[in-house]
Amino acid sequence: MVRLPYLTALTTLFSYGILFVFGHLRDFFRKIFDWSKSNNLQGYAPICLGYEDFYTRRLYLRIQDCFGRPISSAPDSWFDVVERYSNDNNKTLHRTEKTTKCLNLGSYNYLGFAAADEYCTPRVIESLKQYSVSTCSTRVDGGTTKLHTELEELVARFVGKPAAVLFGMGYVTNSAIIPALIGKGGLIISDSLNHNSIVNGARGSGATVRVFQHNNAPHLEEVLREQIAHGQPRTHRPWKKIIVIIEGIYSMEGELCKLPEIIAVCKKYKVYTYLDEAHSIGAVGQTGRGVCELLGVDTADIDIMMGTFTKSFGSCGGYIAASKEIIQHLKRTCPAHLYATSMSPPAVQQVISAMKVILGEDGTNRGAKKLAQIRENSNFFRSELQKMGFEVLGDNDSPIMPIMLYNPAKIPAFSRECLHQNVAIVTVAFPATPLLLARARICISAAHSREDLIKALEVISKVGDLVGIKYFPVEPVKPNKVKHLKKIE
Amino acid sequence: MALAMVNVTASVLDWVSSYFDAPTRAVVFGVPIDGHLVVEALLVVVILFQLTRKSYKPPKKPLTEKEIDELCDDWVPEPLTPQITEDMTYEPPTLESAAGPHAIVNGKEVVNFASANYLGLVGNEKITDSCVGALEKYGVGSCGPRGFYGTIDVHLDCEQKIAKFLGTPDSILYSYGISTIFSVIPAFCKKGDIIVADEGVHWAVQNGLYLSRSTVVYFKHNDMKSLENKLEEVTRRSKHPEKVRRYIVVEAIYQNSGQIAPLDEIVRLKEKYRFRIILDESHSFGVLGNSGRGLADHCGVPIEKIDIITAGMGNALATDGGFCTGSVRVVDHQRLSSSGYVFSASLPPYLASAAIAAVDYLEENPSVLSKLRTNIATLFNELSDVPGLVLASHILSPIVFLKLKKSTGTGKTDIDLLDSIAKQALEEDSVLIATTKRSSLDKCKLPIGLRLFVSASHSESDLLKAAASLKRVAALLIS
């Protein structure tokens, strides 16, 4: 949970206030200067009216160089960031030919499969030559290959459910599955910090949507009791079905969900559960099977488990794993299965190979080593950051660590200064996070070595001192750690 | 005693009436009353007394904990999915090779008319080589959204290439074909805007229209008269034309029927009524026009007149993903407000390099387009006299659409008949064709049928074989 000190809140609000005032002043002058110029819209309404894009024009464009940085190599632990320059105060950015080699703390590369891998890449190239880049067809027409059926069985076995179905993109998986499961007359209760794809899917389904406080099982129970007792709004008929949607690891907080409590509540009230394991599959758990394994929940208790292959498996696409009846129903009605191009065969082969490595079926123990490495890396990094006095969110074992920045001026300062020192960091502000709670988010990978992490800690500590984000007191140093402290200073 | 009371009352009343000296007397129930002002004063006192009393509200009894417990115990949810019956299980044919014009299904070689491989680029050497290079350099996935180090230089090169090819200022890449249109529409259309859309658009467009929360008006499929009527009606009813954004949403080649939209007519209407156009060119990019630049090239309309063009690259370009192109303002706006772009991982780099190689191929070999046109014409000719089925698509459309001349009764029996035609064609003649499958969430009401996707790499014998097979099987199964 975020503990926001009062002084910080006041200064952040003050900073946003100043930016707001300046933005409005500039808009005012722009209106005066544009009065003379003729309006070339000729009766069409403008694409953005009034203050709809005020945030984009006046706040985001100032720090545009901190986002969307292009890279020119694989997103491995070290990568090449392309340098950009701007001639008009950050309104447009132009690429140059120069690149800088930076430490990658921003890509979702939890198990290190992002770059060419010794086991996976030869098999991927072979499948490319056999099945070609794309099948140009939907799964039901002529786009199902042997690789797709093999991967569906492998995913079902890996996750621990009877059957699975694949989709070409994780975002579409959520947006197209939820309308197929529930419609008008149903109720969706989702966590307040759920991802945009779940929100879109819930809105597109036509069901009523209610929100419960993030990770708060007692509040979920309260909401459930009230909703079941009152029934549908206005008609008070009983709900047709209720689905509770939660995520395994929340990507902006780095927290694990309180799965055992929430599942207990759902079983008591006979509601269905949908678990989105986009970030946790392959990254947490003893053998990489996700949040269920880590928290000791039986997979048969969760009705539908969803995940993506982008993060831990270094590929693209998503899957749904559930009972055979649900999967057969989805294969008949889900629009993403019936209308969308099937997943590209080389990407399917990459997931098959990555899963085999994780399960140890390739004959080596690289999978187990990777899983141990990412756990060790995450715990080491998090504890060191907390000792330095940063405010770090998230639970132990989770590879995502947000560091709170709060103040809008610190976002570009932190990001640009770290890039100068060859560390690539991701900073997140509104609208992905609440307005006052801007943060820098670090994603640890199994490909990072201990030296990489120590270098990152040095740079972050130095920049943190410059920018002033060590909101908590530095932990008192024990006598035998004096050498370590000297290195950081 | 009573007399004394009466005397006292009379003297008080005399005093009061003489004091007020009212000229008129009140009449209550036909009886004249002296001192009517006293009556009126009493009435006022009674009214004030009643007003100050609390009004009667039926007592609010919230449900007790026990009652809520009972309701929760009694509630029985519907099963998550309906019962699966035996005839609902459908196993699609599994390919064991690339989806080119000839593919291997269940060990047999079949002629493949189910892949939208219009330019025959599946299995092309140059594309495969560029993909191998990209795979070795970048790996498979891009491991991040575009805003957080997921932008790879091949993405930027691909965007510029497509923009240059089409002649527009800029373009933006999406990571999946169908997510393109249902992210673009909500980015531009908000609550209160007006959209006029064709009733035959496919599910992804319908989903985008629903998510945008704008007012949507449908016009009859590909009927310009109906479009004009709807535009007139909407413009008459709209109150603030400067504040309300208005869009027309059409597809270049409709997936559900194979018709081609008459773009010059639509542009004329758009300029007359001041609407913007959103055009989905998934099946016409790389197919229509002398150089494959799509519907604008085919109809001779300058590309600047079309505001927003979207397309999925999973068809002619034989790769995956989608793009959207238009003016600089249109493209820049999507980089922050299009949810499928901002909140999703970016396109895998090898697919982007395949797209670049495919556009290069199209620029260097425009003759492949005339080969495609000849193939479509041949097949169209051959299929014009299939017993029981009638051609419903446009003569230039690479999706050749056959629908039943006469429906067999219900929608379900129609689907079963078409499925059995396709199955028999595959098993007996080794011709793989696709039937339309509608999801239960799809609101499109156009007739279903058989679809054949013609490719430039089909040979004449392939086309003749498919036509002969269809004629034979249709004659057998359609009475």
Automatic annotation (TrEMBL), chain A:
Topology within the bilayer: Single-pass membrane protein
EC number: 2.3.1.50
Reaction catalyzed: L-serine + hexadecanoyl-CoA + H(+) = 3-oxosphinganine + CO2 + CoA
Ranges that cross the membrane: 6-25
Keywords for the protein's UniProt record, in alphabetical order: Lipid metabolism, Membrane, Pyridoxal phosphate, Sphingolipid metabolism, Transferase, Transmembrane, Transmembrane helix
GO-annotated molecular function: pyridoxal phosphate binding; serine C-palmitoyltransferase activity
Subcellular compartments: Endoplasmic reticulum membrane
InterPro entries named in the record: Aminotrans_II_pyridoxalP_BS, Aminotransferase_I/II_large, AON_synthase_class-II, PyrdxlP-dep_Trfase, PyrdxlP-dep_Trfase_major, PyrdxlP-dep_Trfase_small
Similarity annotation: Belongs to the class-II pyridoxal-phosphate-dependent aminotransferase family.
Name by which UniProt lists this protein: serine C-palmitoyltransferase
Organism of origin: Rhynchospora pubera
Lineage of source species: Eukaryota, Viridiplantae, Streptophyta, Embryophyta, Tracheophyta
Automatic annotation (TrEMBL), chain B:
GO molecular function terms attached to this record: pyridoxal phosphate binding; serine C-palmitoyltransferase activity
SUPFAM superfamilies: PLP-dependent transferases
This protein's record includes keyword Lipid metabolism: yes
Phosphoprotein listed as a keyword: no
Biological process annotations from GO: ceramide biosynthetic process; sphingosine biosynthetic process
Chief location category: endoplasmic reticulum
Domain of life: Eukaryota
EC number: 2.3.1.50
InterPro entries documented for this protein: Aminotransferase_I/II_large, AON_synthase_class-II, PyrdxlP-dep_Trfase, PyrdxlP-dep_Trfase_major, PyrdxlP-dep_Trfase_small
Keyword annotations from UniProtKB, A to Z: Acyltransferase, Lipid metabolism, Pyridoxal phosphate, Sphingolipid metabolism, Transferase
The protein's required cofactors: pyridoxal 5'-phosphate
Ranges for domain Aminotransferase class I/classII large: 109-469
Pathway named in the protein's UniProt entry: Lipid metabolism; sphingolipid metabolism; Sphingolipid metabolism
GO CC annotations on file: endoplasmic reticulum membrane
Catalytic reaction equation(s): L-serine + hexadecanoyl-CoA + H(+) = 3-oxosphinganine + CO2 + CoA
Compartmental location: Endoplasmic reticulum membrane
Topology of the protein relative to the lipid bilayer: Single-pass membrane protein
Record family assignment: Belongs to the class-II pyridoxal-phosphate-dependent aminotransferase family.
Function per UniProt: Serine palmitoyltransferase (SPT). The heterodimer formed with LCB2 constitutes the catalytic core.
Complexes and interactors: Heterodimer with LCB2. Component of the serine palmitoyltransferase (SPT) complex, composed of LCB1 and LCB2.
Name of the molecule in the record: serine C-palmitoyltransferase
Lineage: Eukaryota, Viridiplantae, Streptophyta, Embryophyta, Tracheophyta
